[in-house]
Amino acid sequence: MLFTAEARQLKLFSSACLFVAFAASGCTAQGVSVLRHDVVRQTPYTAGPPSGHAYAGQPLPEGLQAPFPGQPISGLSGGFFEDELLVTVLDNGFGLRENSADFFPRIVWWKFDAPGSPPVVVRALYLTDPQGFMSRGAKSTPSHAAMLSRLSGAEIDPESIAPGLHGSYWIGDEFGPFLYHFSSRGELLEPPIEIPVPELLADYSRDQRIFISPDHPRFRHLGADAHKAANLPRSKGIEGLSRMPGADSLVLMMEGPLVDAKNQRLLPIISFDLHRRDFRLRGLYPMAKPHSVEPIVARHKIGDLLALSSDCYLVIEADEGHGVLPDRIPGFKRIMRALPSKGDNTLMLQAEPILDLLNLPANRFNLNDFPFVTIEGIAKWSGDTIVIFNDDNFPSSGGRGQAQLDRTEFLWMQLPASAACPVQ
Question: Distance of alpha carbon 297 from its chain centroid, rounded?
């Protein structure tokens, strides 16, 4: 699966002038408004085995005790609307391969009733591998396979989801990173797909043909030495994934840059044609220059990607600060609009701030900010309305205060005409 041939239009990383971004404070565009704010007050559960054994005996917020009595619906990491329901995917569970073997990622459908009513989970679908594409061996019978093939958080780390063809789903993963293709029943349809490094970045790939993290199955036996062989840092795989409007193509972004990239603020946006199965470099996204103090600077990242057209995107960009809480480092959490640059470098994108999530416009909900460490979902509801949601990192706290669990929150925003994509 090679990239479509592209001209070397940039002498990449050779000039400081390649970085283009707007990072002024108070950068919410005029006309943005908060339409609705939904909070999941009680963590819902899917029937299944107890989880969170790694937390047993540890003090947790609000008197929570582990192991948990089932499979929590937590860690929302990407989504899109389908038949007025928000389709989301849960990540690997508790943050690491090592502590998430008893958590089973799922696709979850949410229904939103009248404002003020809590979001309702209408369906939760486990991800399975009945055909053994992930090299776990053949299963004896179909019914036996259905029980044994459920994928755990030690095997897969979903961070994004997009609709495929014929009712299927594509999921972006951080462990490989891989693209996974699942049926409408949650069954893996084909072997995991690796993401080739674009030719433009080949000099920084550590002689690897693909983007590869220390958690890739090929490196797991290496232990600490996996970091020396991998070209991506841990937890910097596919974070953004979106279906391109009006096309049978996906567009994806890694959470962070290659380890050896000279310009650590440029992230490639890559498309994947669902018919031809080839990859193409669509553009280079310039992350804003972090303004927080260490160690937050090194953790500047993207949280999700929404394609508005073939070359216009909304990107969640953030660091790991908690915002304006008195005991927290001020943070950076914004929705940026990425467009082609007006210069000669046609692969270079320009990023413009649309919404500062730490400085929300005045609203009837008395909501000042959206201060979570992981804001990993953005979905389009209508022409000018988007929904932003967070990964609650269950059972963690910090977003709304150290003493309380972070909740899954959905922030409905209306964008002004100035935030729309230019007519092509």
Answer: 19
d(CA 289, CA 314): 18
Q: How far apart are CA 387 and CA 366, in angstroms?
A: 18
Using DSSP, state whether 176 is helix, strand or coil: coil
**What is the rounded CA–CA span in Å between residue 52 and residue 94?**
8
DSSP for 297-312 reads GGG-EEEEEEEEETTE
Q: Which two structure tokens, joined as six digits, stand for 180?
A: 């996974």
The pair of three-digit structure tokens given for residue 185, joined into one six-digit string = 């029943």
For 191, counting Cβ atoms within 10 Å of its Cβ (0-12 exposed, 13-18 middle, 19+ buried), the class is middle
Find the distance separating the first CA and the last CA of the chain, reported in whole Å: 30
* Binned average pLDDT, 10 residues per bin, the chain of 424 residues: 43 34 54 95 94 94 93 96 97 92 97 91 96 64 53 96 97 97 97 97 96 93 90 95 97 96 94 98 88 52 95 92 57 91 82 92 94 94 94 88 88 88 68
The topology (CATH level 3) of 16-419 is: Neuraminidase (2.120.10)
Cα 353 to Cα 317: distance, rounded to the nearest angstrom: 10
Measure the CA angle with vertex 393, ends 182 and 90; round to 5°.
10
Which has the closest alpha carbon to 230: 198, 256, 205, 196?
Answer: 205
User: What is the number of other CB atoms lying within 10 angstroms of the CB of residue 280?
Assistant: 17
Three-state DSSP at 267 gives strand
The letter for the amino acid at 13 is F
Q: What is the arrangement of strands in the sheet containing 349-356, beginning at the earlier edge strand?
A: 301-309, 312-318, 333-340, 349-356
pLDDT of residue 418: 77
β-strands 106-111, 85-90 pairing: antiparallel
To which residue do tokens 């279906």 refer?
A: 243
What is the rounded distance in angstroms from the CA atom of residue 39 to the CA atom of residue 252?
28
Beta strands across the sheet bearing 385-389: 33-40, 408-414, 385-389, 377-380
- 6 contact partners, CB below 8 Å, separation of at least 6: 198, 199, 200, 280, 281, 347
